[in-house]
Design goal:
8-stranded mixed β-sheet
Length: about 600
């Protein structure tokens, strides 16, 4: 029997985190530079997956594609970190990332393959591939990252220097379990691999001694070819093999890496015209602990081939290269990954915030209605110290609609005490506080709907001239609209009388009103009662009277104070003009509210 040796092609398996790394590489490292970059990939021995049928059907073992995995660790190659999973073979890949989709389409794919094939042949002839076998299996990745839409166009290639005429399989593939004389010999081989780094290199030479019960295997790197495989060992009864980690799980076809292994063999050891090839697929068993001989025979996936290698002199072309990956329909076309739903930083920020809140529902607060919180519209009357801290707390709880009302401007003393402002906001007379606060909220979390309204609230005890009557009426109407269009009103101003009108409007529109006020070392945080116009309405959370089933309406900020609101802003000393509060108290009060 002699037939053309056929190979199982690689299939790429890319984790989503890799594309995030590619976006970061493009933005922060490569920019407009299209020079190739090194990334890392890995492959392991191929395994068939057991699929159980019904009671009448036996368990089937189905082959899976030969995978080359690329994940977030691919980008660590630039820092010299080339670690891979246990039992896996790490390989270098060469990223060619283009700046435009047109450049991606027009790039000469044949030239990329030929250049890669020439590098493989140079590594073989120079001896570098003998010392570092992973040079035999580089992969290429041609890509274009559309970072506006988070679409990633890509095409993998696994360059293989092909033989024409092809190499021939002279015998049917034999399972390794039937190739060896004893099941204990399989155990010894796994033990030998587990105790060395030979398997991690991906290629090795071996000699099997069927008559040696205690030490049936000798395994070493390719650099020990003459010591292990050489002709001087031919008379000692051993069987020489050239081995590699085989990602294929096909019953008869070896994996793609064997193509360049045979190219290495025909150039470096032309005397080995007919060789035994050990396609080692049982890397998963190396980390699985001890396995008894009978079980090992059942689980063993490795096969042994007998191959007649085409000599270099017989080749029609010394550097004929193939390897572009085919899609699911076996067509030679590039692929596209759409990660717009997961990789847009704004969406990522929203997902991260939502995840942090959702985790609370698992154990700590399973009844909390996060959707209701997110849909609540908050009106913050006052954008100073209390307003800034309250807004940050509401944002952290997932509230998406926050409106600020304030008439002041950012002063030089504000940024140190009020976390929504910075030094730049206080220059040139200061930015309007409400607008600056809303802008800062959008910078912190772009998905928040935050607006700032510059407004002076009419206050009892403060006279209004005749010329101000129309503008005051307009302000009252505007404030009335704002209270009506929001669900909860926070009173966060620095005077009593400025809270009077919003309190009345909140009661009028039956809104939740929360009032926060600061002293030097004390604070008040209280919720106003909600008045019901209809008889069957029960104020939310209102307590019951001790001797009645009727709800008791909670009072407001002014109901609990015997002093009527008057002008408290005039005729004040400097320390009375500022809210003199112990540092750190405002966050506590805001968090309580």
């Amino acid at each position: 029997m002699s037939e053309t040796l056929r190979f199982e092609a690689f299939s790429s398996m890319v984790e989503p985190e890799f594309w995030s790394g590619l976006a970061h590489h493009k933005l922060h490292s490569a920019r407009l530079d299209t020079a190739r970059a090194v990334v890392r990939g890995e492959f392991s021995g191929g395994r068939r997956h057991a699929v159980r049928g019904n009671s009448a059907e036996p368990t089937q073992r189905l082959a899976v594609p030969a995978r080359l995995r690329v994940n977030q660790g691919a980008w660590e190659a630039a820092q010299g970190n080339t670690q891979q999973q246990a039992g896996a073979v790490g390989v270098n890949g060469y990223l060619h990332n283009t700046n435009t989709i047109e450049e991606f389409k027009k790039r000469d794919k044949g030239e990329l393959l030929r250049d890669a094939g020439a590098e493989i042949l140079e590594a073989i002839r120079s001896g570098r591939a003998t010392q570092t076998p992973e040079l035999l299996w580089p992969f290429l990745l041609l890509s274009f990252a559309d970072l506006k839409k988070y679409h990633f166009y890509h095409w993998f290639a696994f360059p293989a220097v092909t033989a024409d005429p092809p190499d021939m399989a002279t015998e049917a593939p034999a399972p390794l379990s039937s190739f060896v004389s004893r099941s204990s010999d399989l155990e010894h081989l796994l033990t030998t691999f587990a105790g060395s780094s030979v398997c991690a290199q991906g290629a090795f030479v071996a000699r099997y001694y069927p008559s040696n019960v205690d030490n049936p295997w000798r395994v070493g790197p390719l650099s020990e070819w003459s010591e292990i495989y050489g002709s001087d060992k031919a008379e000692d009864g051993g069987i020489a093999l050239l081995g590699f980690v085989d990602p294929s799980s096909h019953s008869t076809r070896p994996g793609w890496p064997l193509r360049n292994m045979l190219t290495w063999l025909r150039h470096c050891h032309p005397e080995a015209a007919n060789v035994n090839i050990l396609c080692f697929r049982d890397t998963a068993l190396l980390a699985g602990g001890a396995v008894d001989g009978a079980t090992l025979v059942q689980q063993c996936e490795s096969i042994v081939l007998r191959v007649n290698v085409t000599p270099v002199a017989s080749l029609t072309s010394e550097c004929q290269v193939s390897g572009w990956e085919r899609n699911e329909k076996q067509k030679l076309v590039p692929r596209i990954v759409n990660l717009s739903s997961t990789m847009d930083p704004v969406r990522l920020a929203e997902s991260a915030l939502d995840l942090n809140l959702q985790l609370m529902r698992w154990r700590l607060a399973p009844s909390i209605d996060l959707a209701k919180i997110a849909g609540t519209r908050a009106l913050l009357v006052g954008a100073g110290t209390l307003g800034a801290y309250t807004a940050r707390v509401l944002l952290a709880w997932g509230m998406r609609k926050i409106t600020f009302v304030d008439n002041g401007r950012v002063s030089f003393s504000n940024p140190a005490r009020q976390p929504l402002y910075d030094f730049e906001d206080s220059l040139d007379g200061g930015k309007p506080k409400a607008e600056a606060a809303a802008s800062s909220m959008r910078k912190i979390f772009p998905n928040v709907d935050s607006q700032g309204i510059q407004m002076t609230i009419p206050m009892p005890g403060h006279s209004i001239s005749a010329s101000e009557m129309d503008s005051t009426r307009a302000t009252v109407a505007r404030l009335d609209e704002l209270v009506a269009s929001h669900d909860v009103i926070f009173l966060l101003t620095d005077s009593r009388e400025s809270r009077w009108l919003p309190t009345l409007l909140g009661t009028l529109h039956r809104k939740i009103v929360i009032c926060v006020a600061l002293g030097f070392d004390s604070y008040v945080a209280m919720r106003h009662g909600v008045y019901a116009h209809d008889d069957d309405f029960e104020p939310m959370g209102a307590p019951k009277a001790a001797d009645s089933n009727e709800a008791v309406r909670l009072g407001c900020y002014f109901c609990n104070d015997v002093v009527a609101p008057t002008d408290s802003l005039s005729d004040r000393t400097l320390d009375q003009q500022c809210t003199v509060t112990r540092p750190g108290l405002a966050p506590i009060a805001s968090g309580t509210a």
